[in-house]
Design goal:
single chain, alpha/beta, 4 domains, six-stranded parallel β-sheet, 25 helices, about 35% helix
Length: about 625
């Protein structure tokens, strides 16, 4: 196919017919060209493109239409090449999360496996309420060449394609079968991505023949548009009821979720908590809304929670969720809060505000906190700061550098080393042992924590670190990843090298899936198929992660011990490419990372009722005792 000529601003050059059409108020473009031109002029209130550009792997189904359109528009809507559709989308999602949902990326794929590779990432974005635009190539709208290469045929429904897999895991789905359908589909897509309540991923399944089809587009369609993120005000009745509950409470406590950060309510939360004497616990998504140095920050909540935070939550007679989904890790599978405790849920979406029988306050988090402060006046509850001080002292001791010796370091000691070397960095992770350890032990500055724990998707880490660094180029980014997650998805390391996106990967090698191995034992199971030593293999793998990372162009090194790790983290700061630091760690770190008596809480993971040895029967007895404590109010 011949490449079309372009105008000086990157737009496709017009034929005489198109020039005449533009003079009469229309512009003749292919559907793909129209999509990219429209996206290039959708702006934020800060004057930036809301969708900054597009990650792309081209193939059958998007190379001819979308590929040519992206080439033609050039830097007006840039294209970035990745290595895998899922991890490209992970990078885009991390970018949106680090941008507090104020900016986003698009991701395009071919039909078939390229498209379905993005389904996992779509689910991740959906669970975490994060905006990403997935432009999946689709089969021919005309059906003329059916079945085309990679087409999934439904024997009973001619309207189905593989892209229907996206329907349950996106907030908005549309199949573009005619060019003019973009006139409604594109604004609907951006409406969802910029809606604080319904924010999430969008999939536009773009039929490949439609991509290449020309149409006369209204010139007004391409006028720049500013998308403003609304701040819903609370209902006066709901506000009054919640204020009354707070006044009546003797021991209120706050659970801060990701909605605090997306609302930009960090300062409002700090002021509210301090003025009214209410300690703050944090979810994975809400961690670093308050700096650890904030005197009202009591640390992590729930299953992977701190002694201080969990103590105030267990004793609270009123629990106030702010921008939190109240999932099982936060609530200890509904056993954390006292049976007679009242719940309030401040959330921009009524779905989340009604969970667990909570008294809802449906509003933007910042607006709600400011209005509650005005309603409460000088009201202040009494709280004890001693548990917070005791907890932080325990963290310092637990994360301290070990005495010289031959023992492998723990995850806590690794975290302590990185904390000492890079105290102002953004620590990020997604799955395995490290999320719980970091939530417990990382002491962030405000905004110094990024965890994907809604979907807890192994393989998010390396691509996510790149997305964070793209969103926050002036911040140091530390990616914590276990050997298991690294093996799942590491190829975007090569992309980061090619694009000169520097971040530091701390790769902890415990020779298997140490986190799930421990869970397996807690649930009464035998050690089986998680650690390499317990797998049905002829030889134990000896994987050289340093050589592997170096082969993709990263600076890679193995840390000899904790002191060397600190030095290597500090040295990485000067490089313009990613650094991968490998360190061997123990696989025996406990469920609460050595702080069993001071941290953690029960988590509901179903245990087999019959058919096992005594250890399984004992685990089931314990399971029944804990499950009986669950609050069943929905």
């Amino acid at each position: 196919m011949n490449r079309p000529l372009t105008m000086g601003d990157g737009r496709p050059a017009m034929t005489d017919h198109a020039r005449g059409a533009e003079m009469s108020g229309t512009i003749r473009l292919t559907a793909a060209q129209a999509m990219m031109r429209w996206l290039s002029v959708q702006m934020t209130e800060d004057g930036e493109r809301f969708v900054e550009g597009c990650w792309a792997i081209f193939g059958h189904g998007n190379v001819a239409g979308i590929g040519e359109a992206l080439h033609g528009i050039g830097d007006a809507f840039p294209t970035w090449r990745g290595q895998n559709e899922q991890t490209m989308a992970h990078a885009a999602i991390a970018y949106a999360k680090a941008s507090k949902r104020r900016r986003a990326h698009a991701v395009t794929s071919s039909i078939g496996p390229g498209a379905t590779n993005m389904v996992t990432a779509a689910a991740l974005a959906h669970v975490n309420r994060l905006p990403v635009l997935l432009i999946a190539g689709d089969v021919f709208a005309s059906r003329r060449p059916d079945p085309v290469l990679q087409q999934v045929e439904d024997f009973d429904d001619g309207t189905v394609s593989a892209n229907d897999c996206f329907r349950p895991v996106v907030r908005y789905f549309d199949r573009i079968q005619r060019p003019e359908q973009l006139l409604t589909a594109l604004p609907r897509a951006l409406r969802v991505m910029t809606d604080p309540a319904n924010c999430g991923p969008v999939c536009l399944a773009f039929c490949q023949d439609t991509q290449a089809e020309a149409w006369d587009w209204p010139e007004a369609f391409f006028e720049p548009r500013v998308w403003r993120i609304r701040r819903p005000e609370p209902d006066a009745g709901e506000l009054a009821r919640v204020a009354d509950l707070i006044r009546a409470a003797k021991r209120p406590a706050i659970v801060a979720g990701g909605g605090v950060i997306y609302s930009g309510a960090e300062a409002a939360l700090s002021a509210f908590a301090a003025r009214h004497g209410i300690p703050v616990a944090e979810t994975q998504a809400g961690k670093s809304a308050l700096a650890q140095s904030d005197p009202m920050s009591f640390g992590a909540s729930g299953v992977d929670g701190s002694a201080a935070a969990n103590a105030v939550l267990r004793e609270a007679d009123l629990v106030i969720g702010v921008g939190a989904r109240l999932q099982d890790f936060t609530t200890g599978s509904r056993t954390m809060f006292a049976p007679d405790a009242r719940l309030v849920a401040i959330n921009v979406h009524g779905y989340d505000a009604m969970k667990h029988g909570a008294e809802p306050l449906v509003a933007d988090a910042r607006v709600a906190l400011e209005k509650l402060t005005a309603a409460l006046g000088d009201h202040r509850a009494a709280f004890d700061p001693a548990p917070r001080a005791a907890w932080l002292a325990a963290v310092d001791a637990h994360c301290a550098a070990p005495d010289p010796g031959n023992d492998l370091p723990t995850d806590a000691q690794v975290i302590g080393a990185v904390q000492r070397a890079a105290p102002d960095a953004i620590a990020m992770c997604a799955a395995g042992t490290m999320p719980g350890a970091l939530k417990l032990l990382w002491q962030p500055v405000q905004g110094g924590y990024h965890m994907e724990y809604g979907y807890s998707c192994m393989g998010y880490e390396v691509a996510g670190a790149m997305g964070i660094k793209l969103a926050a180029p002036d911040r140091e980014v530390i990616c914590f990843v276990g050997d298991g997650s690294y093996m799942m998805a590491n190829s975007e390391l090569a992309t980061a090298v090619m694009r000169r996106v520097p971040f530091t990967v701390v790769l902890t090698d415990n020779r298997g899936y140490g986190c799930i191995n421990r869970l397996q034992q807690v649930c009464g199971g035998a050690e089986f198929n998680n650690m390499y030593v317990d797998c049905n293999v002829a030889d134990q793998p000896q994987i050289d992660y340093v050589a592997h990372a170096a082969s993709m162009g990263a600076h890679a090194v193995k840390a000899a011990d904790i002191a060397d790790l600190e030095a290597q983290v500090a040295a990485a700061r000067s490089r313009a490419i990613p650094t991968v630091i490998v360190i061997d760690t123990t696989a025996k770190d406990g469920p609460a990372h050595g702080l069993t008596e001071e941290a953690g809480h029960w988590w509901d993971v179903a245990v087999p009722q019959v058919g096992g040895p005594q250890r399984l029967r004992d685990a089931y007895t314990t399971y029944l005792q804990n499950a009986a404590k669950a609050r069943l109010v929905n």
